[in-house]
Design a protein that fits this description.
The chain is of the alpha/beta class. It has helices at 35-45, 60-65, 70-76, 86-94, 108-114, 116-119, 141-152, 213-218, 230-240, 258-273, and strands at residues 4-8, 29-30, 33-34, 50-55, 96-101, 124-127, 131-134, 155-161, 171-179, 182-190, 201-209, 243-247, 251-254. Helix 5 (108-114) crosses helix 9. The two termini are 29 Å apart. It binds 1-O-phosphono-alpha-D-glucopyranose.
Length: 277
């Protein structure tokens, strides 16, 4: 079964400069919790226990976040403030964290391939932590996708419809609809102009990938923006086997930019923080 979740987290976060000049974008807080922790919680809630994080230069704060901070913890021991650390401590007790570095920024496909030594030869999930996904009504997005994986045993991408003039920001899929919320992918293009887009169904930052994706990425030439794209490797997988696209239930916020980040903050403040969740 799926045990591991890969977090590509080496990107520069240029849309959030200057905040991300010396701080990883994955550490930006939504209310009082960093984006990476929302992602790890979603993975843990989906039954995944091994968190594999692909970091880069300037990303040490990510490792420190999931580690003991002796001085601080000693200082607040026995006080009211300890409760603020309980969520992070619980993750540290129930999950393992392993790290590797992406030395050169050559795209999302390359970042995923850099995580191969942490994943090995088994299917795995991928979370892009700056896409914050929340479902207040039921299972989180990864849980929904893992349930599908159990049924179909192939790679799955999460999708959402976007306005036609936004296709240039996403990987866009087209395919044969096999259930109200599932498509069998037959076309996939990375960040097309609206006139070149095969549909308006955009990939968002949640993937289930079978292990053969690594060899496919290794054989993938640089594509859009001169980067090695996971979208191109997935297209090859779709041609030779099966890739599904799943219209998930829940909210997704693009926290890589100011607008989505503010929306996420307001949403989390009202629906989680104020309610003590
Ligand atoms: C990446 C993927 C893209 C996907 C997006 C989701 O792009 O390459 O296919 O739609 O994540 O957030 P990025 O946003 O890293 O440029």
């Amino acid at each position: 079964m799926i045990r591991k979740c890969l977090f590509p987290a080496a990107g520069y976060g240029t849309r959030f400069l200057p905040a991300t000049k010396a701080m990883p974008k994955e550490m930006l807080p939504v209310v009082n919790k960093p984006l990476i922790q929302y992602g790890v919680e979603e993975a843990r809630d989906a039954g995944l226990q091994h968190m594999a994080i692909v970091t880069g230069r300037g990303k040490r704060a990510l490792e420190d976040h999931f580690d003991i901070s002796y001085e601080l913890e000693h200082q607040i021991r026995g006080s009211e403030k300890e409760k603020f650390l309980s969520g992070t401590r619980e993750l540290m007790e129930t999950c393992t964290f392993s790290y590797t570095r992406q030395v050169e920024m050559k795209g999302l496909g390359h970042a995923i391939l850099s995580g191969r030594p942490l994943i090995g030869d088994e299917p795995f999930a991928v979370v892009l932590a700056d896409d914050l996904c929340l479902n207040l009504e039921g299972d989180g997005v990864l849980s929904q996708m893992i349930a599908l994986y159990k049924q179909f045993r192939c790679s799955i991408v999460a999708i959402q419809e976007v306005p036609n003039d936004q296709t240039h920001k996403y990987g866009i899929i087209a395919g044969e609809q096999i259930r109200e919320d599932i498509y069998r992918v037959n076309s996939m293009v990375e960040k097309p102009k609206p006139e070149d887009a095969p549909s308006n169904m955009a990939i968002i930052g949640r993937y289930i990938l079978t292990a053969d994706i690594f060899d496919l990425i290794a054989d993938t030439e640089p594509g859009k923006g001169g980067e090695i794209q996971i979208t191109d490797a997935l297209m090859k997988q779709a041609q030779s086997g099966c890739v599904l696209a799943y219209k998930f239930k829940g909210h997704r916020f693009d926290c890589g930019g100011a607008e989505g980040y503010i929306d996420a903050t307001n949403f989390c403040y009202e629906n989680l923080y104020k309610k003590g969740l």
